[in-house]
Write a structure and sequence with these properties.
The chain is globular. It is of the alpha/beta class.
Length: about 800
């Protein structure tokens, strides 16, 4: 600042230095501050630095008060203020309020999630009177790429993959004009200076434009899709594979080439009208679709039109999203039908982000690719959200949401920096810094070598982006999780403490943390229903009732432990779980005597029973698991809707939910719901959910030829009833200080809308306060947050203990 730029403060004028923390960089926060300050006639400056936004402002008392109030109440659309700190400032200030250059420093700010195209940019790229007409990479401070292109913070152009594209004079003028919505939009570009899209053949051939009716390469991709081609699309955070969703032959061909047997495909519709042709949408679902996050939203497939079953085999929902970028919007302008928009990869591999890898891996699936020359720095999958209980709930947290930090609850303010490594399936990791949890985007299943390599790369990137140096690591107790093995290696190599966290305790803690439950709040009853997790007794858990807070837990109840013949094979083949459950409840002689007329008896009789029986008797490769997920598998196998093999995790449970008869669920008397009992396990005395009566009622309904949708509804209602009954029983017992009035629900089974809503309703009728997930997935995608909260509590208590020890010694 030169002497002529600055001025001493006049009498009666005071100055403040204001620190604004939160999501305040790359979202148009500085021009908002500049506009407000100039409207109020204030002096000073605003700048980005490593901690967020710094404002130095001078004026009279009244003007400063209004200024503080307005910057808090009027953040830009993508901005979020976590905290505003102010103090007196004694230095000179510019006489006219200005936006100053960014300053460096240790990173304490937020990287903004990628945001879908805003209305203003959408209007520009579709108007022939605008200079960005049909430009596929238009963006402003209200939309566009963020996490997918950032390499470091502060978030400036030279720290993104837009660095190789110098701005033209027109873009530079917009970038430097505080009154323009593109002021310091670091990905600003146009036809003259920005990235270019082009259509290529993945087989190396030459694209002949004469064969396409087209405006440009982006429009040509639409023509190819309309003609039945599969086209690879380089999107925001990775490649997609796109095709016409209304053509069963093309969708089936995509499944075969992608090696994705049954997992549902994501869909994209040009606009809400296209989606409404196939799905019902309520206000909450529409709001999600048009939000800046623009996630895939699971919708009821009850529209007037039907898509081929191959899009989402056996399911009653479809996952739709709207165009997320100008490229998608322009590509679909002439497409009045839905398109499949699934991740660009072979099944179970990570989404391709590299152009060379796309040519190598996707050439066998897609003949053409719509590519561009802006590098993707960070792989970011599409987020998946479902409205349950009237509220949006993340099933996969990625594009549009990550890495938006989650403020930790009261009591965690002094938490040191910590890294939580997450689980193995649906993996995420979590950084604790400045009283917040920075949860990574969805990483995938670490069993895949390339996914695990990408997970390790992302760990390094986040450490660099956030200037993160953990004082300790947290990981799942499971001895074989790759994330836990890596945590042990890092802890040993770096000399860091390792805090091992029980799987289901982490689920509960994640629910508590995102609901703002304070560190010193009383314990709650955590109900965690999932597939499998390593238990505190080194057995497999999966249906647990835990009295828990951040500091610890006690297991108050569980589901009945039942063997899994073949171990992991029982997860893939639901008939194994059905057989194990029936043998545990009644044995083969009783089953054959009472139910020999049933088709399921004939099916199981033809299976390799002798081998399975020997495994069960000798407890060979047949670990027992108190798993709610495996109970769902067994039911689906009994009803014949998913018996031989699951093509993806949770397929049997998804199909079971999909067939539930709504009238039975809503109108039938509760007395017809399948019954469960709650006896005590020997010799521990632990109350457990006993399904014998449920199996007897269900098999009786099979004899009566009761429709499977009615039976599925009775199962869901009965399961919800016993969960609520267990909570009531445990609250009444109150043993070992087990008093609680709050229940926290977590685990992948609570992604089931019917089970979730039934359990919440019944618990609330019993007078409990119910905490549930929304920002963070109930599945293993939320484990890292729970590990982080538990690890932080451990470190805070250890520091308190050291301080008290020092005080005693003094």
């Amino acid at each position: 600042m030169t002497p002529s730029d600055s001025a001493a403060l006049a009498p009666g004028v005071r100055a403040l230095e204001i620190r604004v923390r939160g999501r305040v960089q790359g979202v148009g926060f500085r021009p908002t501050v500049w506009r407000i300050a100039n409207e109020l006639g204030l002096a000073g400056e605003v700048l980005n630095d490593g901690e967020g936004v710094l404002v130095r402002v001078g004026g009279d008392e009244a003007g400063l008060a209004v200024f503080l109030d307005r910057i808090e109440r009027e953040p830009p659309p993508l901005g979020r203020i976590d905290r505003i700190e102010s103090r007196g400032f004694e230095g000179a200030l510019p006489a006219r309020f200005r936006i100053a250059e960014s300053a460096g420093g240790e990173a304490h700010t937020q990287v903004t999630p990628d945001a879908a195209i805003c209305e203003a940019c959408a209007a520009e790229v579709t108007s022939p009177f605008e200079r960005r007409f049909r430009y596929p990479f238009a963006n402003c401070t209200h939309c566009g790429p963020r996490l997918s292109i950032v390499t470091a913070i502060p978030y400036d152009r030279d720290r993104t993959t837009m660095a190789p594209f110098p701005m033209c004079a027109a873009c530079e003028a917009e970038h430097g004009d505080p009154a323009d919505r593109r002021f310091h939009a670091e990905a600003i570009a146009c036809h003259a200076c920005g990235p270019k899209a082009r259509l290529i053949r993945l087989d190396g051939g030459v694209t002949s434009f004469d064969q396409h009716s087209m405006l440009d390469d982006v429009d040509a991709a639409c023509s190819l899709i309309q003609k039945g081609e599969i086209v690879a699309i380089k999107g925001l955070g990775g490649y997609h594979l796109a095709c016409d969703a209304t053509r069963p032959d093309v969708v089936t061909r995509l499944r075969q080439l992608k090696r994705r047997d049954a997992k549902p495909f994501a869909l994209m519709g040009r606009d809400l009208d296209v989606i409404a042709g196939y799905c019902a949408m309520d206000q909450a679902e529409v709001a999600l679709l048009i939000s800046p996050a623009a996630p895939i939203v699971l919708l009821r497939a009850t529209g007037p039109k039907r898509l081929p079953d191959a899009v989402a085999p056996g399911l009653s929902t479809l996952g739709f999203m709207l165009p997320t970028t100008p490229l998608h919007l322009l590509m679909l302008r002439r497409m009045g039908r839905p398109v499949v928009m699934t991740s660009g990869n072979l099944s179970d591999e990570p989404q391709v982000i590299d152009d060379a890898a796309a040519r190598e891996r996707l050439a066998g699936i897609a003949s053409y690719a719509l590519v561009h020359d802006r590098r993707i720095a960070n792989r970011v999958d599409d987020s998946v959200v479902r409205v349950m209980g009237g509220k949006a709930r993340a099933l996969r947290r990625a594009r549009g949401y990550a890495p938006g930090p989650i403020p930790l609850p009261p009591g965690f303010e002094a938490a040191p920096e910590l890294l939580a490594m997450g689980g193995e399936l649906k993996a995420t990791f979590c950084l604790v810094k400045d009283g917040a949890a920075i949860l990574s985007q969805h990483q995938g299943d670490l069993e895949d070598a390339e996914t695990f390599a990408d997970y390790r790369k992302a760990l390094g990137l986040y450490a660099e982006m956030f200037g993160h140096a953990p004082a300790a690591l947290a990981a799942d107790k499971h001895p074989e999780y790759l994330s836990s093995k890596l945590a042990r290696e890092r802890a040993s190599a770096d000399g860091l403490p390792l805090i091992e966290v029980q799987h289901h305790h982490a689920h509960v803690a994640a629910c508590l943390a995102e609901n703002g439950r304070s560190l010193d709040a009383p314990p709650v009853l955590g109900v965690v229903l999932d597939g499998l997790g390593w238990g505190a007794d080194e057995t497999l858990w999966g249906g647990e009732f835990l009295l828990a807070d951040y500091r610890g837990f006690a297991r108050l109840g569980s589901f009945k432990p039942v063997a899994m013949p073949g171990g992991a094979a029982a997860i893939r083949e639901p008939w194994r779980n059905l057989y194990a459950h029936l043998m545990a409840e009644m044995g083969w002689p009783a089953f054959a005597m009472n139910y020999a007329e049933l088709e399921v008896h004939a099916d199981l009789a033809a299976r390799p029973r002798a081998t399975i029986d020997a495994m069960l008797r000798g407890e060979l490769n047949s670990p027992k698991a108190s798993s709610c997920g495996r109970l769902f598998d067994a039911l689906a196998a009994a009803l014949g809707i998913s018996r031989d093999r699951q093509a993806y995790e949770g397929e049997a449970a998804c199909r079971l939910e999909a067939i539930v008869d709504a009238a039975t669920l809503e109108d039938e008397d509760d007395s017809l719901a399948y019954p469960f009992s709650i006896p005590n396990l020997r010799p521990t005395g632990l109350p457990y959910v006993e399904p014998l009566a449920m199996w007897q009622a269900m098999l009786g309904d099979l004899i009566l030829k009761t429709p499977a949708p009615v039976m599925a509804a009775r199962f869901h209602k009965g399961l919800a009833k016993v969960v609520a009954a267990m909570a009531v029983k445990l609250a009444a017992r109150g043993e070992a200080g087990a008093r609680f009035d709050t229940v926290a629900l977590s685990g992948g089974c609570f992604q089931n809308r019917i089970l979730f809503e039934q359990v919440v309703q019944r618990l609330e009728l019993e007078g409990f306060t119910v905490l549930t997930h929304a920002q963070v997935p109930a599945n293993d995608g939320g484990l890292a947050l729970g590990q982080a909260a538990i690890g932080a509590a451990h470190l805070i208590d250890a520091q308190v203990g050291r301080n008290q020890g020092d005080a005693r010694c003094a």
